[in-house]
Fold this protein.
Amino acid sequence: MKKKSILCLFCTILLLGVQSAHAARIKDIANIHGVRDNQLIGYGIVTGLNGTGDDMKKSVFTLQAIYNMMVRHGITIDPDNIDDIKIENIAAVMVTGTLPPFAKSGSRMDVQVASIGDAESLAGGTLLMTPLLGPDGNVYSVAQGPITIGAFSYGGKAATVQQNHPTVGRIASGAIIEKSVPMEIGENGILQYQLRDADFTTASNLAATVNKRFGAGTAYADSPGTVQVKVLEPYKDNVVDFIASLEILDVDSDSTARIVVNERTGTIVMGKDVRLSTVAVSHGNLSLIIREDPQVSQPAPLSGGQTVVTPQTTVDVIEDDGELVLLDMEKGVSIGEIANALNAIGATPRDLIAIFQAIKASGSLQGELIVL
């Protein structure tokens, strides 16, 4: 069953690799320069906790925040007696959020709340009005509302039961945007598309696709990561429509052949373009030889057919200590074929990781091996 599961996993990965050969839309592989999110942060107080808040003797900043809040609301407290405040249902938190592009004043955004003191849980708490600031120190949003944590923590002196993280929560649509970030699209009549994965071939294909649709000279790639697109005269006053017509164009994207492995989890992800040259593999008492034997298909006389060459892959598995024989191959073998063969003889994912690392070290792997 384990062998079948591993084999199915590799088959799925290979099928996904084949599907990725299709063209991708521009909006899926590139962003317009300047259209970006902005991170916000703020310091707040959560109230309404059932005795699971900060310890005022240890979390001094929480006690100071409560004192400042009460003073702002007209509640007089003797500063000399501030240490006498005993509250267990309040916790100091950091509130973070992401301001989306083109967000206008009055719209809402999600925020995440995380305890910075020694609170045991934020379950049942309510975040008080918290200004969220940008890197420039200006307030762009204000958050407030009940917290959803999706976790629990219960117990007594002898034992406790906890699931997930009860000191981190979220408020869906819990912040109101007060100020938007100005953005200019098509400034100076130029749109700059930034590829999410820089690649010379993809950048060239993107420019060629735009020029084919809107005319020569409309776009050009100035680097493997950016493509400049001129806003055409009919769209000078309606850049949005021009961008909408651009982002749906299909582009043949390309990338470097890669294998990504994670030794901690035994995860292996392979790109479709990874290939192996002549190679013989021996792992433990298992030996594997893969060779490519092209076969010629000859049509019958006077049949009108054509002579074609059909590839045929031969896999030999040796389980004893016999000597390996290295055979030359005229063309590279897919790494998926090696993976399937190794799975068939019982190699585990960690065995495959070790084998791939050894193949890369031998110089027989045409691709990049990334170890996490």
Remarks:
- Residues 258-299+307-371 form one domain.
- Residues 1-21, 322-330 have pLDDT under 50 and may be disordered.
- The helical segments are 2-19, 26-29, 60-72, 200-214, 239-247, 335-344, 349-362.
- The chain has three domains: 38-177, 184-251, 258-299+307-371.
